[in-house]
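In response to the reviewer comment on reproducibility (Comment 2.3), we provide here a single inverse folding case reported in full, input and output, so that an independent group could reproduce the run without further information from us. The structure tokens appear first.
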């Protein structure tokens, strides 16, 4: 039998009003807000400075994804949860161009809220040109949103970035395929978004979340094996790969 249609999941609700989406954003329906992170605009110029030439693909990729978010959800707010740009020691010319271009394209379609990440040390200088104030975190009655490079606690439903979560799938002959992923912990009420950056392949959560040296300090307080992993695939949209405890057990046993 040949199946001509495959169900592609575009979103999964993990808590009331909280949707993981195949567009690299968490959509909060009660707030009418999309939360994204780790865009790393200007990545190509930083790599060029270090002798590695990359074509300028990042801005078009990021803006294309944000446009899809707007077309699907028409959000009132877009919360950029850290690492909007790449170079953390200064503002590069490409970053000036890309940041201003992003703001001018989308600020009339939604309120843009910028939360500081560890790569955003000098972003405020650029944002000031458009009278935008960068926040250390975003918080309302239901949600607590910050990048994750610092430990400022867990409360309400917490959304983090910074970790660049992905999942490495292995076959029986040693082949590997890495896909971007969300991780969600229902007990601790935490969700971590995948990086929206075109060039960020991500960190395998079966390794990073089980390592005591987390990229994200606050995760040391959380039972890592209770995270559930949701991958973003080209063919099937969002896929629930189950709990990290099961994924770790399969990896340890050598089962694909």
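Designed residues, in position order:
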């Amino acid at each position: 039998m040949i199946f001509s249609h495959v169900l592609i999941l575009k979103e999964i609700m993990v808590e009331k009003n909280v949707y993981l989406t195949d567009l690299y954003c968490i959509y909060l329906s009660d707030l009418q807000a999309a939360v994204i992170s780790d865009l790393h605009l200007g990545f190509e110029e930083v790599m060029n400075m270090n002798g590695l030439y990359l074509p300028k693909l990042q801005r078009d990729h990021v803006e294309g994804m944000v446009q899809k978010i707007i077309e699907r959800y028409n959000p009132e707010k877009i919360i950029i949860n850290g690492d909007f740009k790449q170079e953390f020691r200064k503002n590069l010319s490409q970053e000036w161009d890309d940041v201003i271009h992003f703001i001018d394209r989308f600020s009339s379609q939604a309120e843009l809220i910028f939360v500081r990440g560890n790569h955003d040390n000098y972003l405020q200088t650029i944002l000031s040109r458009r009278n935008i104030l960068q926040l250390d975190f975003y918080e309302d009655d239901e949600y607590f949103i910050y990048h994750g490079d610092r430990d400022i606690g867990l409360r309400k439903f917490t959304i983090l970035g910074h970790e660049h979560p992905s999942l490495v799938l292995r076959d029986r002959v040693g082949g590997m395929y890495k896909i971007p992923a969300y991780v969600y912990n229902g007990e601790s009420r935490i969700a971590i978004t995948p990086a929206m950056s075109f060039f960020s392949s991500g960190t395998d959560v079966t390794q990073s979340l089980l390592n005591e040296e987390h990229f994200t300090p606050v995760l040391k307080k959380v039972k890592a094996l209770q995270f559930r992993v949701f991958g973003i695939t080209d063919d099937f949209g969002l896929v629930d790969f189950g709990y990290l405890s099961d994924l770790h057990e399969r990896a340890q046993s050598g089962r694909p």
